[in-house]
Amino acid sequence: MPSDWICLLRQIERDRRSGASVVLARAIEAGRLFLAAARPLPSDRLHAALARFTRRLTASQPSMAPLLNLANALWLAAGDRPDRLRWTQLHAAMAAYADGVDRRLAHTVRHGARLVRSGSLVLTYSHSAAVRMVLLRALAAGRRFEVACSESRPVGEGVSLARRLALAGVPVHLMTDAALPGWMGQADLLLVGADAVMQTGVANKTGTEPLAQAARRARVPAYVLADSSKWLPPALATFWRTREEAPGQIAHRRHPNVRIHNRYFDRSPLPLFAGVVWEEGVAAPPEVRRRLARFETAAALIALLERRPADRRR
């Protein structure tokens, strides 16, 4: 039977609905299960096991930056001497990373909620846990506003967001994806989540860029909610990729002359957004790029990922 951590990573790989924050929480649990199983291993075997865990972790959801950053935290702790690797190093790194997750998200939500004003119409897209938490925090603070969102095909996670907000007492306008940019003229704010923030752009649900373009034309401020667990420095951004999903989610009938493309994620240029809301406040695009350039990355992790079999990347 596969190990518990392998089973959990397989579940993460099959998940087509959860956002990066939810996936990260489950990945941390997989990491804890891995460490529990790896505790008795000697240094050389522990190093090999960490490499195995890393490959499976980063391949499970290759579009989600937090998994690469979790791996990076472990490899920074592991160092570059396999013969000196100790289980306590990895355990401490995992504990420190996990302890920071809730704190970073809470601070990000607090900063984001300040952007939501009473009487405003907030547009959002897909189903970001951070966006949902921002809206609910603003509501709890006594602000009254409305939300416009779309179904978010092909999985329909936007419908789930609309339902949850409505149950909390937020008036919601739900529509098709194609109709959402047409609401930008009435909007006061665009809030989106992110699966990765890179120097070259923001990775989020396919269709985010047209919304950001529409926001710029309408002079509506657009913000990305993404704590630093979703920020990918250049060395790690090389390994970000999006994969083709099941064609049947778009159309069941096929013809030899029709090729179906079903990619959940793409990248929107960073300058389209007024800023990235993270745990330290709101960072404008130039500041985001400067901070990303200073992120520390583990050379051993880069070497490991470069040895992975080639795959299609965007």
Q: TL;DR of this structure?
A:
This protein is an alpha/beta fold and 314 residues long.
Overview of this protein structure:
- Helix 6 (129-140) links the parallel strand 1 and strand 2.
- The chain is of the alpha/beta class.
- It folds into two domains: 4-102 and 297-306, translation initiation factor eif-2b, domain 1 (Four Helix Bundle (Hemerythrin (Met), subunit A)); 108-293, Translation initiation factor eif-2b, domain 2 (Rossmann fold, 3-Layer(aba) Sandwich), CATH 3.40.50.
- It has eleven helices and ten strands.
Secondary structure layout plus pairing:
Layout: H1 4-14, H2 20-38, H3 43-60, H4 65-78, H5 87-113, E1 121-123, H6 129-140, E2 146-150, H7 157-168, E3 172-175, E4 189-192, E5 196-198, E6 201-205, H8 208-218, E7 222-225, H9 234-237, E8 265-268, E9 275-278, E10 281-283, H10 285-293, H11 299-306
Parallel strand pairs: 1-2, 1-4, 2-3, 4-7, 7-9
Antiparallel strand pairs: 5-6, 6-8, 9-10
Helix pairs in contact: 1-2, 1-3, 2-3, 2-4, 2-5, 3-4, 4-5, 5-6
